[in-house]
Amino acid sequence: MAGFQPTGDVPRRVWILGVTGSGKTTLVKRWGEIARVPAYDMDDLYWRPGWIGASDTELYDAVDQRTRQEAWVVGGNYNRVRTQFADRVDRYVWIDLPFRTSFARLCNRTWRRCREGTSICNGNHETLAKAFLDKDSILLWAITQHRRQRAKAAATAAAHPTWHLRSPRDVATLEAWLKAQYGAS
User: Fold this and answer.
1) Whose CA is closest to 181, among 2, 4, 11, 3?
2) Half-sphere exposure of residue 163, counting CA atoms within 13 Å on the CB side?
3) Which CATH superfamily is domain 13-182 in?
4) CB-CB neighbours of 169 under 10 Å
5) Residue 40 pairs with which residues in a beta bridge?
């Protein structure tokens, strides 16, 4: 089976979807760096210090402000907000890796962040207790919400122009194509 091959012009307004641990944030950052466009992770727009979530109004306003620009890349699944801005998106990118791949990445990422004390989402920190023992565990979330997140991404992909990335190789192909388009190394 042939892998992903991007076609056409580089989209200027991109929304990256994928289950927890699929690599959305990493691709958002890379795309922003390569294309020299603003890059936003929805988790950073949503989470306040102390793991307090933004209200729907606050999140809507934050996304509205950022997606009024001429070019941007956003990553995240926040459907209650994303669907309100679908008309601003030139292309969705769906990172659709197998569960075992995304979950292994999530476990590795969580372990590394806990061990290193990495600050994420506006100064918040993951802890081993929260990751492995808490009812709001990111790992439990990934297990219980995988099918639901994937189904919502599939529905978006079916309704809008979408590049469907099914493997790490597809993601690498997209990054290489972006670098070629922008003359980046």
Assistant:
1) 11
2) 24
3) P-loop containing nucleotide triphosphate hydrolases (3.40.50.300)
4) 11
5) 74
- pLDDT tens-digit readout, 94-126: 999 999 999 999 999 999 999 999 999 999 999
Q: Which of 43, 181, 177 is nearest to 122 (CA)?
A: 43
> Residue 69 and residue 65: Cα distance in Å, rounded?
8
Q: Hunting for tokens 């294309």 — which residue is that?
A: 35
Can you count the helices (H) and strands (E) in the chain?
Answer: 8, 9
Domain ranges of the chain: 13-182
Q: How far is residue 44's CA from residue 37's CA, in Å, rounded to a whole number?
A: 17
Contact 66, 74 (CB under 8 A): yes
